[in-house]
From TrEMBL:
The organism of origin for this protein: Panaeolus cyanescens
Keywords in alphabetical order: Oxidoreductase
Any single Pfam family the record assigns to this protein: Aldo_ket_red
Any one cellular-component term (Gene Ontology): cytoplasm
Name of the protein in question: NADP-dependent oxidoreductase domain-containing protein
Oxidoreductase among keywords: yes
Limits of the NADP-dependent oxidoreductase domain: 16-67
Molecular-function annotations in GO: oxidoreductase activity
Length: 67
C-alpha cells in the first residue's frame, strides 16, 4: 500500500516524515553508517520521501549527505 502524500510547493512528499533523530542521538548506541544507511534504504523502498532532520539530531544531516 503506497504512503499517503501531500503537495508542498511543486513537490509531492509523504504526509508523514521519517524522523532521523533516533538514528543519530538520544536513544542508545549509534550504529555504523552502513547499518544506518540500510534503515534509510528501507524507508525509501517503502516510499518515504519526507525526511525530518535538525542540527540538534546528532549527525543526522551529515548522515543523509553521505547516504
Amino acid at each position: 500500500m503506497p504512503l499517503h502524500t501531500k503537495k508542498i510547493g511543486n513537490d509531492e512528499v509523504t504526509a508523514i516524515g521519517f524522523g532521523l533523530m533516533g538514528l543519530s542521538a538520544f536513544y542508545g548506541d549509534i550504529e555504523s553508517d552502513e547499518e544506518r544507511f540500510k534503515v534509510l534504504d528501507a524507508a525509501v523502498e517503502m516510499g518515504c520521501t519526507n525526511w525530518d532532520s535538525a542540527d540538534i539530531y546528532g549527525d543526522s544531516e551529515e548522515l543523509v549527505g553521505k547516504w
